[in-house]
């Protein structure tokens, strides 16, 4: 039974998260011959102030790039 944990920065829509869950499920079915009913996926969201890239928060990066 595959169990996949995904951590993403907050801000995705419900539709985007549903599409992510569907895509990951399909990938598990294809890659490890699992049945869709046996695939489990957990999405964890963190704020852009709690996610760092190259010494900066995502909030800082977004502010600089906008």
Q: What is the structure about, briefly put?
A:
The protein has helices spanning 14-32, 58-65, and strands at residues 3-9, 40-46, 52-53, 56-57. The strands form two sheets. The chain has a two-stranded parallel ribbon. A two-stranded antiparallel sheet has the order 3-4.
Report the order of strands and helices. EHEEEH
Q: Using the coordinates shown, work out and report the CATH topology.
A: Macrophage Migration Inhibitory Factor
Count of domains: 1
| Helix-and-strand structural type | alpha+beta
- Shape, per Cα inertia axes: elongated
Strand order of the biggest β-sheet: 1-2
What is the CATH class designation?
A: Alpha Beta
SS field, number of helical segments: 2
Task: Identify the CATH homologous superfamily.
Answer: Macrophage Migration Inhibitory Factor
The total beta strand count reads 4
Provide an overview of this structure:
The protein has about 70 residues and is of the alpha+beta class. It has a single domain, classed as Macrophage Migration Inhibitory Factor. Helices cover about 40% and strands about 25% of the residues. The N and C termini lie far apart (about 40 Å). The relative contact order is 0.24. The model has no long low-confidence stretch (mean pLDDT about 95).
Task: Describe the SSE topology.
Elements: E1 3-9, H1 14-32, E2 40-46, E3 52-53, E4 56-57, H2 58-65
Parallel strand pairs: 1-2
Antiparallel strand pairs: 3-4
């Amino acid at each position: 039974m595959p169990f996949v944990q995904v951590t993403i920065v907050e801000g995705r829509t419900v539709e985007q998260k549903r599409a992510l869950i569907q895509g990951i499920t399909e990938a598990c079915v294809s890659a490890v011959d699992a049945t869709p009913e046996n695939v489990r996926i957990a999405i964890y969201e963190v704020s852009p102030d709690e996610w760092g890239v190259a010494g900066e928060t995502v909030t800082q990066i977004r502010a600089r790039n906008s």
